[in-house]
TrEMBL record:
It comes from Desulfomarina profundi. InterPro entries: Lcl_C. This is Lcl C-terminal domain-containing protein. Residues 38-146 form the Lcl C-terminal domain.
Length: 150
């Protein structure tokens, strides 16, 4: 039976994802709830706000929310980038999020996008393995902040 290039790539991806799942399960996954409403991504060195804000339609209200946010005595929270949001969704897709239950993860959130600026968008993943996604713009969105620990 002839194996196509696409079939070979799919098999390699299945093996890679399986190994990744075994590694993350053995190590407890990269997401860890550290209390105070914070989830630590141990691989990326990011702290995520577990809860979300109310929905905002104005960037100035988003900035005020971010400037007032104090979780775990940290006040240097910021909006995530598109890539950071995608990576969080990818980790949860592969590992699950048992330790960090993010409410309404698939809703529309404010983020910083290289092309569009700071906007409320919904990330629609088509094929995470290829990195295919759509940003669906809206006029309102929740805020879930992130901070760097490195």
């Amino acid at each position: 039976m002839k194996t196509t290039h696409f079939t070979q790539i799919c098999r390699i991806m299945v093996v890679c994802f399986s190994l990744l799942q075994i590694h993350t399960v053995a190590n407890g996954g990269s997401l860890k709830n550290i209390g105070n409403g914070i989830c630590l991504d141990q691989e990326k060195g990011l702290m995520w706000q577990i809860d979300k804000s109310k929905r905002y339609s104005d960037i100035e209200d988003v900035k005020v929310y971010g400037n007032k946010l104090n979780l775990g005595n940290y006040t240097d929270w910021r909006l995530p980038t598109t890539m950071e949001s995608l990576e969080l969704r990818g980790i949860i897709s592969i590992q699950g999020n048992n330790d960090c239950q993010f409410p309404k993860l698939e809703s529309r959130y404010w983020l910083v996008d290289k092309k569009r600026g700071t906007v409320p968008v919904k990330l629609e993943l088509e094929c995470f393995c290829r990195g295919d996604f759509n940003l669906v713009l809206g006029n309102k969105g929740y805020v879930r902040m992130v901070r760097d620990i490195k």
